[in-house]
Amino acid sequence: AILSTTILSNAVVEFQKLQNQTIRVTGSASQNVTSDFATLALRITARTPDLKSGYAKMENDANIIKDFLVKNGIDASTIDVYPVDSYEYYRRNGAYSSNEIEGYNVSRWVKVSSKDVKKLAQISKDAGSLVNQNVNINLNNVEYLVSNLDDLKVKMVGEATKNAKARAESMVAGPNSKIGTMNSARMGVFQIVPVNSTEVSDYGINDTSSLEKKFISTVNVPFNVK
Fold it and tell me: pTM of this prediction?
C-alpha cells in the first residue's frame, strides 16, 4: 500500500508539471507568386561643353525615349522623367587636372511602371536600339514586384500560425495531454526569393529580379500544454 501510494503521488506530480508546461514551436508557410507589376529605369547620359546644350540634349533624349515607350504600348501617364543631374569635368594637363572647366557631364532618369510585366521585359531588350538615335542610355534590370504584398503577408502569417499549431499538436499527441491557448506569437522575417532558390537571410530577402517568386513566412509561437 505504501509503495502504491508513492507511485500514485509521483504520477500526480508529473501530471501537474505537464499541466504547467509550455512548448515553443516555429511554424512556416510558403506560396509561389507571379509578379503582377514591374518597373524599368533608363539613365540618359551625355558630355557637353556647357550646361545649356547639356539640358537641351537631356530634353531631346527624354522625348525620344518617351516616344519609344508609347509606340511600344506603354501608357504615357506611367512614364516619369526626373530632373537633370550635372557636374563639371576639368581640362587635364598631362596626368593632372587643371582648374579650367572643360565641360559638363549631364544625366537624367526616365522610369516607367506597368502591369504588363512581359511587355516591359521585352522593351528592356529592345531599348538598346535607341543608340541609333544618338541616345546614350544605361538600363537597370526590370524589377518585378507584387502589388498585393501587404495582403499576402497577412495571409501567410495566418498559414504559418496554423502550421505551428499542427506541429505542436503532433508533438504532444496522447490521451493525457493536448495543446491549450497560444500565449503570444513572434513573426519572423519574410523571404521573397526566386522559386527554386534555397537562400534565406536573418534580415529577410525581397527579390525583384525574378518574375516567378516564392513567398516564405515563419512565426514562433508558445503554446500551453493541458
Answer: 0.77
